[in-house]
Specification:
Layout: H1 8-12, H2 14-22, E1 26-30, H3 35-47, E2 53-58, H4 68-74, E3 80-83, H5 96-109, H6 124-139, E4 145-149, H7 158-161, E5 166-168, E6 181-185, H8 193-202, H9 209-212, H10 228-237, H11 239-252, H12 262-266, H13 283-295, H14 312-325, H15 338-365, H16 371-397, H17 401-408, H18 414-461, E7 465-470, E8 476-483, E9 486-491, H19 499-505, E10 520-522, H20 529-540
Helix pairs in contact: 3-8, 10-11, 13-15, 15-16, 18-20
Length: 549
């Protein structure tokens, strides 16, 4: 394990977490590949032994970002367990698109004019495609104590800020045939976004390229809770899936965002998108395309290819670049290979949402690019970096000086680490003292009960008639002993010989209804048999017992 990463949620529940670890609980880390999941894994890994961690990923199918599982595997030190939703009874895979379409058909058949898209009040996308498959995996796991760790943060929304970061999951806790205690735990609940990024960087993890491309969050490509920027980025990566959402919205008659159609809200029309995803995703694709365009053959006579003309916005960017460089850039229109020309144009046109990772492919794998093309690509990449940094600062700080100071402070300074360690040690010392007091009190109560029973047996052996009396919990706490007009009480608690008892005793020849004269032998702790015999004899005679309570 690495050095513990302290969060407020961990410290508030430190004794519980340590008890879980000591009891051999299994911590199931739900990993979506996003920033919160990466920070969650780093925090859990810093506290929990490696053999008590299980990483689970819910496969979302077509709506999941390409390469997300490879990204997760590259940033964790545990095997990745991939789960998916249970198929429908007819054998159809349960995907998000199929679930939305079936929801629409069900509502129409029922005559209900209701929006079929998931929303805050009906998040079946999360519940049925993520939460349920993960809990199904946990239920089939032999863990007796199951901790479902989720990367939920209070900063994300008002609703999430009201959640309880540690609670028992009653639905998946059972005590009959399969004994299992199940809990939901949000270890990074109190962290800010800047803390999440700091934890990821300190742990040596790499973030998903969608964040470099401008995404605010990483879940489904077209998450109903995503921002317009997220949808723009996803639309350029997967135009076909974007077209499905646009067509489905028109077919259902309901908008996802309730107020605007997708194309108006996102700002991109389907017909404006190129069916070929802009840029290349992997190095293998780049090398394959380079090989195809350089060695490809044509059937018959090669047809003349018209150069691809840039869009007006692209033409304006080129004009600005020509003014700055003082030379005319003809490379983007005069490439001998048409496919390479298209790649270069797309790189310049779509750079603001695709970031530097895609643009570097053109420089790294196409060293024969003209100098003007390389300069144009680098200029776009630098512009993206500046805009992204500015937007990131605005989003993180929001103009709040306190948040600005928080984002600029060093993460986990030595002073903060020492203070947290001292607080943790003090908490552990208090817990150990409380446990020791509890153990002593419990042992003392056991000794007292054993001695009380031994006293009753000793009284019987001395010829006393013994009657027992129980307390409210049903445990015998007193014995009343009588012999030849002598009577006394043996108990673990004292009852005073009140005036009412004395008045009642006048009707019983000086004794109460139990034959109790008022003499008492109070047992507190452990005593020997010799001491008990002597104490009973003295008490019966109405004399004080040395060493009695």
């Amino acid at each position: 394990m690495t050095a513990p990463i302290y969060t407020k949620t961990i410290l508030d529940n430190l004794s519980t977490v340590e008890q879980w670890i000591a009891d051999g609980a299994t911590f199931f880390v739900g990993h979506s590949g996003g920033k919160d999941s990466q920070a969650l894994y780093a925090v859990i890994k810093s506290w929990v032994p490696a053999d008590q961690i299980v990483v689970v990923h819910a496969d979302l199918g077509d709506v999941e970002w390409d390469g997300i599982q490879d990204h997760i595997k590259a940033n964790i030190q545990h095997p990745l367990n991939v789960v998916e939703a249970t198929p429908y009874k007819d054998g159809t895979p349960k995907t998000l698109l199929e679930r939305i379409d079936r929801n629409h058909r069900r509502l129409v058949a029922a005559g209900r004019n209701v929006n079929p898209w998931p929303d805050n009040n009906n998040r079946f996308c999360t519940g049925e495609l993520k939460t349920d498959p993960i809990w199904k995996y946990i239920r089939h796991h032999p863990a007796k104590i199951a901790i479902n760790c989720v990367g939920i943060r209070a900063e994300e929304s008002t609703r999430r800020s009201k959640a309880n970061p540690l609670k028992i999951n009653k639905k998946n806790t059972c005590s009959d045939r399969v004994q299992r205690a199940a809990f939901d735990f949000y270890p990074i609940f109190d962290l800010f976004e800047i803390d999440v990024w700091n934890i990821i960087a300190a742990d040596g993890q790499k973030r998903h390229h969608a964040y470099d491309d401008g995404n605010d969050r990483l879940s489904c490509k077209f998450c109903v809770f995503g921002s317009p920027g997220d949808w723009q980025n996803a639309a350029r990566h997967d135009p076909a899936l974007y077209a499905w959402y646009v067509e489905a919205e028109k077919r259902y008659g309901f908008t996802i965002k309730q107020d605007k159609p997708i194309e108006e809200w996102v700002g991109i029309r389907v017909e404006d998108l190129d069916p070929t995803p802009p840029g290349l995703t992997t190095d293998a694709e780049v090398a394959q395309l380079d090989n195809d365009t350089s060695t490809g053959e044509t059937d018959g006579e090669e047809e003349a290819q018209e150069p691809v003309q840039p869009a007006p916005a692209e033409q304006g960017a080129e004009d600005d670049h020509r003014q700055q460089e003082g030379e005319e850039d003809e490379g983007l229109r005069r490439r001998s290979t048409p496919a390479l020309t298209k790649i270069a144009l797309l790189a310049v046109a779509y750079a603001p949402s695709h970031g530097g990772k895609k643009l570097r492919h053109f420089i790294d794998f196409y060293p024969d690019l003209s100098e003007a093309e390389a300069v144009a690509v680098r200029a776009q990449r630098n512009r993206i970096d500046r805009l992204r940094a500015k937007r990131y600062r605005r989003r993180c700080n929001n103009g709040d000086p306190l948040l600005l100071a928080r984002s600029s402070r060093p993460f986990r300074t030595p002073t903060a680490i020492a203070a947290a360690a001292a607080e943790t040690q003090a908490r552990r010392d208090r817990i150990e003292r409380d446990l020791e007091r509890s153990r002593r009190a419990e042992q003392h109560a056991v000794d007292t009960r054993k001695t009380l029973l031994a006293a009753a047996r000793t009284a019987r052996s001395l010829g006393f008639k013994v009657r027992s009396s129980s307390n409210h919990s049903g445990r015998v706490s007193s014995y009343y002993c009588t012999r030849d007009g002598q009577g006394f009480r043996i108990s673990d608690h004292e009852i005073p010989w009140t005036a009412q008892r004395q008045s009642n005793a006048q009707f019983h020849g000086g004794r109460d209804f139990n034959g109790y004269h008022g003499d008492q032998l109070i047992i507190d702790g452990h005593h020997t048999a010799t001491w008990l015999r002597r104490a009973i004899t003295l008490t019966a005679a109405g004399r004080a017992v040395p060493g009695a309570a």
